[in-house]
Design a protein that fits this description.
Alpha-Beta Plaits
Length: about 600
């Protein structure tokens, strides 16, 4: 009994920290793992056993393959055809959500969304559509797509491995398809019919290319002969001003220097284009004796050149920017990149921008060297929304990664190779075929997810050994007393779905699977329908933006607020519980 109390305390504390979101979930999971070891719940030789687990290896391999398919332009080729659908908003939504759902069955949900969000924004800008009407259904479609195959989402991979650990064959790559495809079709039809009424509309992106009116903060300053700081560097000029502002360009005669270096010396008759609010501007004028130069209207043409670009990007759920500001990170000093604007829930935040502490879903407007910006996005875990050229590539270049991927799917589907081996080999072949450079092999593996899985898998084992899973299963049986067995299945499905809305879905699958297996044992039923219920519940967090990276990615571009997800997410969740219950019991009978 003491072991059950200890594992309960550790898991409740971990769940509270997951929700509090002060520390990253992989750090919390490792802390819980060490705590369980210290109190004797996990043997010494099993503490790090999760890192060698087949599910962890499979997730890493699938992430590598997803990036290879993304990089080769396979998905872009499909996305490019979407632009031909015309200006009808409803038709745009059908095509975008359908394509996103299909793609998410085979590559990571986040990768699919990173490709499709810019396409949705461009369609909205060029036509009469509302981006907000399309983005939330697209995010939910990516979650639905993940349920279709075993490799579509980490919970499915985990559940397959857990089945194998309980003296049964692992689920095959298409064993999830009857239930997942039914969910995807039902969910898409429901969203197509109800999105017009249930998805909130934001007009922030319907009339312009972004929610920012950058020109409102751009000011042109002329440096007369008698001005202070003539001959000084930009660094010295910036050091004189207490408030935060950005020098976005310098005009010297006919020359325009965008994002000028901090060692650039000021000369008489230079013209500086700065971004600052009214109070900061007045301070600059008082200290330097510069003059306002209002001869022409300022706009974003001063922000770009052949080398310098202005790009929007979304702060991801695991971004290193979260909780920190541009001033904390010294982004301009370290990388030569200006933070020109920040939008939260579709609305611009006013200067002083360098002190804004970033949150998941914020949309940033950054200016700097194009290659440096790409590195900044990768380094800090952001997703660019730049309208880049699609990586269409030649037919041969598309056929190689598709052939490798298809080979892995077929080899695992026909039992020639196990899924971990087939997809690990496919990841290696992607490198050998130069689909993905070897230097990028590990860059796009989401290591926090890998560490989270490796840490929570032993915790799931500790739940079973301590008897905590049996105790919780007994509680569910007591609640569903005198009811058909399917009621216990529904309770498990709903509980997993609610849990996945507040913690990572992979962790939800690991923690709920032992309870599902104990339920099946108590009912003397097959464990398969209960494992499927956990997989579905963990994969479909529709109620909150923090439930999944896809939900966070559309929050800023769509102008959504936290509570907006309930409007479509709650009825969709109810519908998915009904469809899943019917399809699971038909496909995976309780008995036999």
């Amino acid at each position: 009994m003491a072991d059950q109390v200890w594992i309960g305390i550790i898991l409740i504390a971990a769940l509270a920290l997951f929700v509090y979101d002060r520390w990253r979930y992989d750090f919390v999971a490792m802390g819980a793992l060490f705590a369980a070891y210290i109190v004797g719940l996990i043997p010494r030789n099993e503490v790090f056993s999760g890192f060698g687990n087949a599910a962890v290896i499979t997730v890493a391999a699938v992430l590598v393959i997803s990036h290879a398919l993304w990089r080769s332009g396979v998905v872009d080729s499909m996305a490019s055809s979407v632009k031909q659908v015309g200006d009808r908003v409803w038709l745009q939504m059908i095509v975008l959500t359908g394509l996103t759902t299909f793609v998410s069955a085979f590559i990571s949900n986040t990768g699919a969304m990173a490709i499709m969000i810019p396409v949705a924004l461009q369609l909205s800008r060029n036509g009469a559509g509302h981006a907000s009407l399309m983005l939330m259904p697209m995010a939910f479609g990516s979650l639905l797509g993940g349920t279709i195959t075993m490799i579509g989402t980490p919970p499915n991979i985990i559940i397959s491995d857990i089945r194998a650990a309980h003296d049964a064959d692992p689920f095959g790559i298409f064993d999830f398809t009857p239930v997942g495809l039914s969910l995807a079709v039902a969910g898409l039809v429901m969203m197509w019919v109800t999105a017009h009424w249930l998805v909130p509309r934001s007009k922030s992106r319907d009339t312009s290319n972004s929610p920012y009116d950058v020109s409102a903060y751009l000011t042109e300053l002329y440096l007369p002969e008698n001005a202070a700081l003539i001959g000084h560097t930009l660094f010295e000029f910036e050091s004189k001003i207490k408030e935060n502002f950005a020098v976005v360009a310098l005009k010297r005669g006919k020359q325009l220097i965008t994002a000028p270096p901090r060692y650039q010396r000021l000369k008489a008759e230079d013209v500086l284009i700065i971004e600052a609010d009214a109070e900061t501007l007045q301070q600059i004028l008082d200290i330097t004796k510069f003059e306002l130069n209002a001869e022409e209207q300022l706009d974003t043409r001063f922000l770009v050149s052949d080398e310098i670009k202005v790009i929007e990007g979304i702060v991801g759920h695991d971004s290193r920017l979260i909780g920190r500001s541009a001033a904390d990170l010294r982004i301009r000093h370290r990388f030569g990149v200006n933070v020109l604007a920040v939008a939260r829930e579709g609305q611009p935040l006013k200067p002083s921008l360098s002190d804004v502490r970033f949150k998941p879903g914020d949309v940033l407007l950054l200016q700097g060297d194009a290659e440096v910006l790409d590195d900044v996005f990768k380094r800090f875990g952001c997703f660019p929304l730049a309208q880049r050229s699609l990586r269409l590539g030649s037919k041969r270049k598309l056929l190689v990664p598709l052939g490798i991927f298809a080979g892995a799917v077929l080899a695992s589907a026909f039992g020639l190779l196990s899924v971990p081996v087939a997809f690990s080999m496919a990841a290696g072949l992607m490198v050998l075929a130069n689909v993905i450079p070897i230097r990028e092999l590990y860059e796009h593996i989401e290591w926090p997810i890998i560490v989270l899985l490796a840490a929570t898998i032993p915790l799931g084992g500790a739940m079973e050994r301590s008897g905590a899973a049996d105790t919780l299963a007994t509680g569910v049986l007591w609640i569903s007393m005198s009811s058909p067995d399917v009621v216990a299945l529904v309770i498990l499905l709903v509980a997993t779905m609610l849990l996945s809305n507040i913690i990572n879905n992979a962790a939800a699958a690991v923690l709920m699977a032992p309870i599902g297996i104990s339920l099946a044992s108590s009912l003397e039923a097959s464990m398969d329908p209960f494992l499927m219920a956990v997989a579905v519940g963990a994969a479909l967090p529709f109620l909150t933006p923090i439930g999944h990276q896809s939900n966070i990615l559309v929050m800023g571009p769509g102008g959504y607020r936290f509570k907006d997800y309930w409007r479509l997410g709650l009825p969709l969740s109810i519908a998915m519980v009904i469809v899943a219950t019917v399809m699971i019991t038909l496909t995976w009978p309780m008995r036999g």
